[in-house]
Write a structure and sequence with these properties.
7 helices; single chain; Rossmann fold; alpha/beta; binds fructose -6-phosphate
Length: about 240
Amino acid sequence: MEVVIVSDAKAGGELIAEAMAELLRHKPDALLGVATGSTPLPIYQALAAKVDSGAVDASRARVAQLDEYVGLPAEHPESYRSVLRREVLKPLGLDVDAFIGPDGTAEDVRAACEAYDKALAEAGGVDLQLLGIGTDGHIGFNEPCSSLASRTRIKTLTEQTRVDNARFFEGDIEQVPHHVITQGIGTILEARHLVLLATGEGKADAVAATVEGPVAAVCPASALQLHPHATVVVDEAAASKLK
Ligand code: F6R
């Protein structure tokens, strides 16, 4: 695992956007695995700026979703499908055909999960998977004690994660769904390159457990230690508890 400490979130976004641009220069139809939440926004902004300036052509890029709320209509502004359309597809000039994701509104959620793992494999696998990290060490929405071999499935969000995400729902935790579909840790580990960005002091404990703790389900992100090509980019605040 490679750990890169940057000065701030903007520098982390720029660094990772350049890695994505470099991938697209070599593989124009790369499958980019994207996360939601606040952390990756500087990455998406920096990548969109590179596209706008002509530094990279993303017109053939493909995008795969990491997770999705269960039961939120796809057109809800906070469904991850909507968020990714707004923050990634539109700024990169991609249309919905470039995008694959799990169906959080499916009647048969289990079948939707299986179908998504199949779709990822049929798309040739994720070339570069972006990850954020929860304050409890979750990646995707694999909360602590998720199996390190798990596949895409339905998970129940912890109270802490619902509290953390209430800011996207007018601060009202009652509006935050209880369930999500998330790529499993085993699914995530199949991506060819994993890139985790963590910024801010609130992530410092989770980063320390990820990088320096044992590989353990209690900190799902520690599974990155098992991956042959994992990069953890942290700002100084998130790195503050590393030894
Ligand atoms: C969301 C996801 C989550 C977030 C994590 C951190 O797609 O994968 O694991 O990355 O909850 O969220 P932020 O970045 O908002 O702190």
